[in-house]
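Q: A reviewer asked whether we had any structural model of the full assembly, not just the individual parts. We don't, so I'm hoping you can provide one. Inputs are below.
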Amino acid sequence: MSGEVLTLPLEITGTRNVEWSSFEQVFHLHGARMKSIAYNLLGNEADAEDALQEAFLKGYRSQQGFKKNAALHTWVYRILINNCLDEGCRRQRRPFVDAPPEAVPGGSSADLRFALRQAMSQLAARPRAVFLMAAVEGLPHAGIAAILEISETNSRTLLLEARRELQVKLSR
Amino acid sequence: MTPEEFDELAKGLHHEWDSPGLWARIVRSRWNLRVGIVAVAAALLLGLYFAAPAKRVAAPASGDTSLLTEQAMAEVEAAEAAYRQSIDRLAKVAAPRLDRPATPLLKAYAEKLALLDGAIAGLKREVERNGFNAHLHVQMAAVYRDKQRTLEEVLRHE
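A: Here is a predicted structure for the entire assembly that you could use as a starting point for your response.
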């Protein structure tokens, strides 16, 4: 279901003014991981940085959508992932610019990584997002559940599905 | 491929690189966005003023919601006065930081405030000519609000 766009709910439950310095803290604590997620969804560093910039600006501008009891970084992650998946669908998954032109499963580790990225880009949006956050970035399921607004059990199930599908694709 | 090998491969997709200017770029784009909003508001204001000469009258016509009644005018003036008082208080506290900005961001705030002051002065001139025009007061309130927020950000800036 490669054309699916993951639309996460940006529910309005109240207002809370978040200072810009809080966004700066989120950037310093989570920026590297956020860039990596964006890179794996968009395919190059420049677009990943643009996506991060847009996510922080959008997060600051649309604070009315930020839940009072939520952690700020989950809000920014959610916006980032939504934007990247939307953008990825618009471009119909342009190949990675810094990847080898043809990957050979079973070949070098760079080839295998390329093959995995290609396989990952064919996953549906939700399993892809969960796989990226859990298996690649090492985020805990509790955090992923908060970002995607799903249950932890659902997050674990989506990861299992993604792993199974990717392993099948890689073994072909 | 074993599950362990697959896990290692997945972790290998994590990609890091240095982006030394990225946060500064985000801060700049945020500031540019706000300046852009003020500029668009000012352009809209001028467009409204020059495109609708028939509405430039001194007193409201009944049933025309774009013009204020006497009572609404008094309320708007009271609200604007409250804004001005709040802004004056904030400006006094923020003045030492803005007179000698210690960081590029503070310097940017000072420039933005100068721009907002210019917009306020222009709007005041228009209001003096046509005080019953509701659009002018809406724009004035937006610029006052922006100035108040900017001053608050200056005071919060470390």
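A: Points you may want to mention in the reply: Chain B has a mean pLDDT of 77. The radius of gyration of chain B is 23 Å.
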